[in-house]
Amino acid sequence: MNDAPKKYDESQIQVLEGLEAVRKRPGMYIGSTSSKGLHHLVYEIVDNAIDEALAGFCKNIDVKILENNVICVTDDGRGIPVGKHPKLGIPAVTVVFTVLHAGGKFGGGSYKVAGGLHGVGSSVVNALSEWLNVEVCDGKNIFEQGFERGKDVSELKIIGSGDKTYTKVTFKPDGEIFEEVEFDADVLLKRLREQAFLNAGLNITFSDERYEEQENSETLCYEGGLASFVEYIHEKKGADCVNEDVIYFKSTKNEQSVEVALQYNTSYNELILSFANNIHTAEGGVHEVGFKTALTRVFNDYARKFGVLKESDKPFVGEDVREGLTAIISVKLMDAQFEGQTKTKLGNTELRKVVDFLVYEKVSEFFEENPAQTREILEKAMNASKAREAAKKARELTRRKSILESSSLPGKLADCSDRNNEYTEIYIVEGDSAGGSAKGGRDRTFQAILPLWGKMLNVEKARLDKVYGNEKLLPVIKALGCGVGFDLDISKIRYGKVIIMADADVDGSHIRTLLLTFFFRYMKPVIEDGRVYIAQPPLFKLSRGKNVRYAFSDRQRDECIKELAGDSEVKIDIQRYKGLGEMDAIQLWETTMDPKTRTMLKVHMEDAEKADEVFTILMGDKVEPRRLFIERNAQYVQNLDV
Ligand code: 28F
C-alpha cells in the first residue's frame, strides 16, 4: 500500500468534490436510490462493455451476481487503457473510475451519451459502491485497482500476466446509499436479453451465484437481432401471427444505422418499442414518427395500387395499419439528442426522413415480394378500418342518445359537488349493495360513486366498437368524460382519481382485472397519468368489547389479536369480510374511503412491453401461456381463496 502523503493537487480536489456530489444527491445521477436505481448501477457498467462491442472490439460479456449481492461484469474488449492520462498524469483507468463523466467515450466520436440517466459513467457506480475493483489485461500484464466509496485505496498495480485483453469490474453497492441492496435476477436478465437482441451476435452470459443449491445461468445470443426480438415477444405471449415472416431490414450509412423488425399478430393491440444507441426511447421521437408515417403511406399506396382500397374507400389511418403490430425500431448514431420529461425522446430531426424513406422502401419491397402475406396483412387493416368507422358511428349514436336522454352522465352515477378534477375522485364499485354503502359513507363534495352493473366485456378480445356497446363500460366512459381509445383527451377527465373498489374475493379480483384491461387497452393515458387506484377494503374486523380494529392482511390480523388480547387470555371476536356489502356506510368510510385513514394501491406502468404481455396472457384466449404465468406467480399471491 503506497503510504506516501497524499498530494492534494487540483485534480485530487476535483475528484473528491465529484464523488461527494454523487453521494450527496445520488438520485440526480441514477434516478433514485430505490431498487430501480440499484439495478441502474449494473446497466451503467454493462453499457460500457456494450459500447466496446459497438466499437467492434468485444464479443462476449459476462454478468454474475455473487454472494451478498456483489456484481461482477467482464468483457473481452481492448481493456480500459492503463497509460498515464496526458493531462492528469494518472492512469486512464483511474480517471474513468474517479472523475465524473470521464473517459474518452464522452469526447464525441462515440455512441456514448453524456448527462441524464444514460452513460453517467463508471465513476458514479464507483462512488455509490461500498467497494469496487477494476481488473484490466492489456494482452500482457494484468492490472488491478481497488476503491472504496469512490476513493482509490490502492494504486493501479500489476498482479499477473495474460495474453488476452479484457476489462473486469466487481462492485458491491453501498448499503448506506441504497435502501434495498437485493438484486432481482429476472430484472437483470430481461435487460441483458434486450441488449442481446439489440446487438445481434453479441454473446451475453448471466449467472446468479448467490444461492448454492439453485445456481441458474443463461446464455443470451441472437444472430437474428431485432427479428429474434419480435419472435420472442410473440412466443412469450402465445400470439398467433397474421403473416408468417418477420419483416426485417437494417441500413448503415456514415456511422449511422437504422434497424427495423415488424410482424402482425391477430390481437387488436399495437406494441412499438424504439431504441437509440441501445437506450429504450419510451417517449418515442423522430425515429418512431418516421416509422409510423411511412407505414401508413405504404399501406395506402399498395392498397390503392392493387385495388384493396377502391377509389370511393377512405384511406387507412395510423391506427388501422398498426392494429396487431409488434415493431422494434433501433437506431445508432453519433451525438444522439435525448429530449422529453425522462430524457427518452429522440430529437435528431434529420433522422425522421431517413427512417421514413427506409421503411417505405423496404416494406414496399416486402409487399411486392410476398403477395400472400401482404393480402393477410391488408385484410386485417381493412377490418380495423371498418371497426373504426363502426366505433365512430357507435360513439355518435351514444352521444345522440345521451343528448336525447336528460343528461349525458350515466343514471347510476352519484356525482360529487366539486368540479375541480384536482381533488375529485370517482369510486367504481362492483354491485349495488356496495354501491349503496359507498354512497352513504362518502364525502359528497369530492367523492363520486358509480356502481357497476350488467355483463362486463373482456376488451382483450374486442375492438372499440364493441366497447361502445357494452352496458358496463359505457357508463364508465361517460362518467370520466374524456373519451376512449385514440380520441381520448386526458385534459377532459372529470376526476383526479379513478378508484376501483371491488370485493376481496375471486369475483372481485376478476372484475378488477377486467376493468384494468379496459383501462390499459383503451384508456392508457389515465394509467400513465397516475390516476388509477385500487381500493383496499379490510379483510378482517376484530373486536374486544368496544375496542375495534381492522386488518388488511393475515399478518395484520395476528398483530391485532396480540394488541387486543394484551396479556390476558380473552375472547376476541373476528369477522372475515366476504364482501364490501357486509360493511355499513360508516365502516366503509373509515376503513376504505377516508383519505386520512384508507390505504390504496396506485396502478402504474413501469414497462409497456411487460404490461402488454401480462394482459395478453391473462385475458387473451391462449390457455397454455396463462397456466405457465399462474404457476410462476402463484407464490406471490396472498390469501388465495382455493
Ligand atoms: C465491465 C465493464 O467498462 N469496458 C470498457 C473500454 C475500452 C476503452 C475505453 C472502456 C479512452 C481513454 C478513457 C480501449 N482502447 N466494461 C468496460 N472498455 N473505455 S470501458 O476507453 C475509455 C477512454 O480513457 C478503450 C482504446 N480505446 C478505448
Descriptive report:
By secondary structure, the chain is α+β, with helices and mostly antiparallel strands. The protein is 38% helix and 21% strand. It is built from 20 helices and 24 strands. The strands form 5 sheets. Strands 1, 2, 3, 4, 5, 6, 7, 8 and 9 form a 9-stranded mixed sheet that branches. Strands 10-11-14-12-13 form a 5-stranded mixed sheet, sandwiched between helices. A hairpin with a 3-residue loop joins strand 1 (60-66) and strand 2. The longest helix has 34 residues, at 371-404. Residues 103-109 and 113-117 have low confidence and may be disordered. The structure holds ligand 28F.
In terms of per-residue confidence, which ranges show pLDDT below 50 for 5 or more consecutive residues? 103-109, 113-117
From the alpha-carbon coordinates, what is the Rg to the nearest angstrom?
Answer: 29 Å
Helical content class:
25-40%
> Which class best fits the helix and strand makeup?
alpha+beta
Report the oligomer: single chain
Bound compounds, each kind once, are: ligand 28F
Principal-axis shape: globular
In total, the number of strands is 24
Please write out the topology.
Blueprint: H1 10-24, H2 26-30, H3 35-54, E1 60-66, E2 70-75, H4 92-98, H5 122-127, E3 129-138, E4 141-148, E5 151-152, E6 157-161, E7 165-173, H6 185-198, E8 203-208, E9 216-220, H7 225-236, E10 247-253, E11 256-264, E12 271-276, E13 279-280, H8 286-305, H9 318-321, E14 325-332, E15 338-339, E16 345-346, H10 350-369, H11 371-404, E17 425-430, H12 432-441, E18 447-452, H13 464-468, H14 473-480, E19 497-501, H15 506-522, H16 524-528, E20 532-535, E21 540-544, E22 547-551, H17 554-565, E23 573-576, H18 585-593, E24 600-602, H19 608-619, H20 623-633
The protein binds ligand 28F.
